[in-house]
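User: Protein folding is very new to me. Would you mind checking the protein record under this note? It all follows right here:
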Amino acid sequence: MRLIIVRHGESEWNRIHRYQGQIDSPLSELGLRQAAALAERLRSEKIDHIYTSRLQRAARTADAIAAHHPGVPVTPSEALLEIDHGEWQGKYAEEISTQYADGLSEWREHPTRSQMPSGESFSNILKRTLDFLEAITASHKDQTVIVSTHDVVVKILVADALGMNMDRINRIWVTNASISVIEYGKDLPYLVSLSEACHLGTLASTREGQKAL
C-alpha cells in the first residue's frame, strides 16, 4: 500500500495561534488556497480511497482533493481526529505557555507521558492511529490511499514507519497542506517523503509562524 498522508490546510485557529484539538475550526482563506494547491498537486495521482477526519479543516482539504478524482470513495474516520487538547482547547498559545508551562514542556519533550488536563492521553491517540493503520494496510494492499488528518496523527504515522521513539515526534515539523508518503509492502515500511510542500510555494506556512498546533 502506498499511503499519502496530508495535513489539512491552515485553519482560522492556526492563523491566530489558538489551540483547537477537536474543536471544529474552519480553514482560513490561506488554508483554502493551500488545499486547492494541494489538490492540484495530487490531480494526476491514481487514488483508490480517501480517508479523512470529520473535522472540517481536514474534511474540506479531502474534498478539494476528491473533486479531481470523481468516483473515489471518501470515508470519514474518528481514528483520524486530532488529539483532544482538553482544557487547552480554545486558549491562545500565550495563555498555554503562561498557565500550563510545565504541562506544555512535558508535551513537547515527553508526549508519551503527557495528558492535557481533561484531554486525551497519548496512549489513546497512538492506539487509535495504529489500529487504523493496521486496518487499511490489510484492506488496501497494492493500492494508493490518501489520509487527510492532523499534526499529531501525521507525526505518529511517520514515527511508526521509522521505528522512532514516540517521545521524539515533536522534532518533526509537518507543514499545513503538505504531503508525506509511506510505502508498505512485504518488507519494512519506507518513508518516501516528509512534509513535501513544493506545490505551495509562497503559500506555505512556516514553523515560526504557527505557535499553536
